[in-house]
Amino acid sequence: MSVQTSEQIRKYVQPARVHRRIYTDPEIFELELQNIFGVAWLYLGHESQIKNSGDYFCTQMGRRPVVVVRDNDRNIKVIHNQCAHRGSMVVALPHGTTDEFRCCYHGWTYHLDGRLKAIPLQNGYPADFDPKNPRTAMTKVPRVVSYRGFIFASLATDGPSLEESLGHMKTSLDDMVDRAPDGEIEVAGGVFRHAYNGNWKIYLENLCDAAHPWFTHRSSIEAAQKQADNVFSDGSGEIAIRQMRQNGAPYSFWESQVGIWAYPNGHSYLGDYHDDSKLVAAMNDPVFRDYIAALEAKKGKQAAAKILQVRRWNSNIYPNLSMMSQFQQLRVIQPVAVNRTIVHTYNFKLRGAPDQMFINTISFANIVNGTGSLVLTDDLEIYNRITLGLSSEGAEWLEIGRGFETDVTEEQQGGRKGKNSTSEIYIRNMFDAWLGYMTNGASGSANSAHKGLS
Amino acid sequence: MSNGLQARPLASSIAKTADPAGHFNKEDCENFLVFEARLLDEARFDDWVALFLPDATYWVPSEPEQASPRDTVSLIYDDRRLLETRVRRLSSPRIYSQEPRSRTSRIVTNVTIEEQADGRCTLRSKFMMIEFRRDDQRIFGGTYRHHLVRAEDQIRIAMKRVDLVNCDMPLDGLVVPF
To answer: Are residues A352 and A438 in the same domain?
Structure first.
């Protein structure tokens, strides 16, 4: 396989446009797995998924299967799900509780932190065989950090710390947790796993795209607008329909009332979306009023007001996480192939919030992240069509120049903001980070030598 | 109507063989399920929704043995209001995820009446659905559970639950109801 040089990679990204090969070339995809997913801080899961020692879940870092486990000292460890003997996958269930990991091939058995515990027929191995040698352990992922319960890991030994890498985007993670009256959140309510035939970057690019709902989601917008409100609903359909109608807000709303912010290392958020009292989270909703009362009772009026002032829609933490605090949603993007991606979506329960809040969270998840959603299915169709379209060299370059000349600098933490909410600033910002990762090799930095892109 | 089915009152043939006391026999139930499958295969979604009672729900869980649609996400969970919206969207010319349209073929079998009383019954059956769209064919299979009610001499659905065998695997978008 010929390897793409940094020189070649740089040619694919120009100010305000990118080459289609970035989304279609298997060689570039392999390089992304190495230089981005093999280096960057990746979100793996939440501490509430492994509350006790011995609790584990399996996930992937790029395409590498790993086990996230709480060991006997209650530390969180991430180990490659691979036997040190012949490489077989050791842990076969998606999650569970155990006191050791055992390979079903030749019985090599490991401690929860991956160290070798026992092997049958030990006397048959060469004389220098040492069960204490790390080579006989399930390999550890070198860096694992939990930020307020959110578990991130990096396959790079060195590089920027998680907090450095997150920068201002820490506040989006804070927003997920601070909204809980009791100060704690937990994963609950099951998982959606939806898939599409397209590149992983397309998904992140759509999450902060304020210009598409009005068009892409036309069928569900119109169907919801025509829906009679006196037909029976147990509350779930009502939330779904309100969300679909909201997607039908006029372009003037999407242009001027939403707001798009971009931060270093590829992160971004679309904000202030719910400031229009059209959604369930709006201040005049009875459930939300009960919730505010619970929050104020625990945190005080002033602190509660400050927490609720953060009104973000999707926050993207490059390269594999997106979340939405108002309905406690979180998505993890899993690249499978250059033209295949799986997205796992989770819900969080706010400790101390009214029970109905979580029921609304589930209803919201069904319409926004559901595999059978009236909304998401049209997004998935677009991702598939992008892949079909990009298979042609008819148009080599893709435009990402919306707002290019009008974006403005934010005062805080290196941020920038689109003058209009439909600016593609967040896409250009992701490609800044992309170039940095792709051309810096394994140095673990998203800093692009190619400044001025966005 | 070319298919010869459209004009026929929905459940008249079923009602004819029914016990006047509202008893459900197996043949009635099988006929009903086959008829429902045909409506879906022929994309007669308005007629399909008309089978549901005004306070009915249609549910495709995301987990095997899922206990509730309230506290766990569902591939589809529609109360009557959302079901009407779903079906209205299916006939929209702007439903891009159905451009081109899917073609489906369903088989319903292993029908069992699990319990019945007072003009209501719980029905369990197995189904298989082939969906073809844009050079790709998918196969879905699993268990249907219908709560049926006799209303004004016709059979209506109070609740339909569809447990897909692969409900918890990564799935591409689901647009056509099961």
So the answer is: yes
**How far is the CA of A397 from the CAs of A18, A189, A400, in angstroms?**
6, 42, 10
**B62/A382 touch (CB, cutoff 8 Å), yes or no:** no
Residue A83 forms part of a structural domain: yes
Model-level pTM greater than 0.95?
A: no
pLDDT tens digits for range A301-326: 999 999 988 888 899 999 999 999 98
CATH code of the domain covering residue B36: 3.10.450.50
Residue A126 has a pLDDT of 86
pLDDT, average across residues A407-417: 85
Q: What is the per-residue pLDDT for A81?
A: 98
Query: Can you read off the two tokens belonging to residue A43?
Result: 């979100």
User: Residues A262, A319: one domain?
Assistant: yes
Closest CA to B88 of B48, B132, B145, B133: B48
For residue range A124-176, list pLDDT tens digits in order: 888 888 888 989 999 999 999 999 999 999 999 999 999 999 999 999 999 99
Residues 302-341 of A with CB under 8 A from B: none
- Among left, alpha and beta (phi > 0; psi -120 to 50; other), residue A230 is alpha
Classify residue A36: in a domain, yes or no.
Answer: no
CA A169 from chain centre, in angstroms, equals 13
**Does a structural domain hold residue B144?**
yes
Residue A8 domain-assigned? no
User: Residue A376: which domain range?
Assistant: 168-443
Is A47 in the same domain as A173? no
Q: Decide the pairing of beta strands B154-164 and B52-61.
A: parallel
Looking at the complex, does the CB of residue A392 fall below 8 Å from at least one CB of chain B?
Answer: no
Helices (H), A226-354: 236-247, 251-256, 286-299, 301-309
- The answer to whether position B127 is within a domain reads yes
Interface of B with A (CB under 8 A): 54-55, 57, 60, 62-63, 66, 69-86, 88-89, 92, 94-97, 99, 168-175
How far is the first Cα of chain A from the last one, in angstroms, to the nearest whole number?
Answer: 32
Residue B99 domain boundaries: 12-164
Q: Report the half-sphere exposure of A379 (CA within 13 A, side-chain side).
A: 26
Asked whether the beta carbons of A197 and A383 are under 8 A apart, the reply is: yes
Write out chain A residues lying below 8 Å of B171, CB-based: 193-195, 371
